Amino acid sequence: MKKWSFALLSIMLIAVLAACGNNKDSDSGADNAGGAPRTVELKVGASPTPHAEILESIKPELEAEGIRLQIVTFNDYVQPNQQLEDKQLDANFFQHQPYLDTENKERGFHLVAVTPVHVEPFAGYSKKIKSLDELKDGAKVAIPNDPSNGGRGLLLLAKEGLITLKDNTNITSTIQDITANPKNLNIIELDAAMMPRQLDEADLVFINANYALEANLNPEKDALLIEDLQGNPYANILVSREDNKDADAIQKLAAALHSEEVKKFIKDRYQGAVEPAF
């Protein structure tokens, strides 16, 4: 009886030790097939165009490195940062540094830029006029209602001499900073996502390039006035939180977004409407 009890205890001990060994392999990221790395899922929020398209192009490369990229698309500029702050996302890719700075300051977020990826020229469009010379007194002009992008529109108007600002270099200028408006332009502020729909209403509409591309507008070909890309401070950036910016998966994503393949993808697909920032 004692021999059978000893034998049974020995078998149970071996089974427990084997289970512990298997758990150790699992925790280290190896599987039972011989040590293959464990797949990590990375959830990234992005605007549909061009951000999500760029991310889609690097999925195979990241998959080979053990990272399964899940892209969540947003049609607004509010939810991607809120969900990243709330840890529903691991990163996002849709904004430039001035916008991120405003979000962190006004909404108390703890988000950080990881790396710049591309530049989208901000521009003014119209269905009603073919040149700025045709812009009449009292014309309706639509700009985005967030400080950084609204400021971009005002700076372009100031550059063309259509208005004067307190400081023509202040990228967060608002309509309260206008000191002269000789044409009495009726400048209205609306959500950036609504800008393309204003083309049937307003005489001049300032549209972020991602929304312009979705509306089949090419900044280089269709705009009446456009930002200079040289020295442009509005490079679109990969963004994460302070607590995960140095994570291996985030750094691999950043490296993939700086590859020669991505540079070629941007140049070939967008033909000057989007330019690499690296």
From TrEMBL:
Q: What is its main location?
A: membrane
Record keywords, A-Z: Lipoprotein, Membrane, Palmitate, Signal
The UniProt entry, under InterPro entries, shows:
Lipoprotein_NlpA (IPR004872)
Q: Which residues form the signal peptide?
A: 1-18
Q: In its UniProt entry, what is this protein called?
A: Lipoprotein
Organism encoding this protein: Paenibacillus taichungensis
Q: Gene3D superfamilies attached here?
A: Periplasmic binding protein-like II
Q: Where in the cell is it found?
A: Membrane
> PROSITE patterns attached here?
PROKAR_LIPOPROTEIN (PS51257)
What does the similarity note say? Belongs to the nlpA lipoprotein family.
The taxonomy runs:
Bacteria, Bacillati, Bacillota, Bacilli, Bacillales
User: Pfam families per the record?
Assistant: Lipoprotein_9
Membrane topology type: Lipid-anchor
At the top level, the lineage of the source is Bacteria
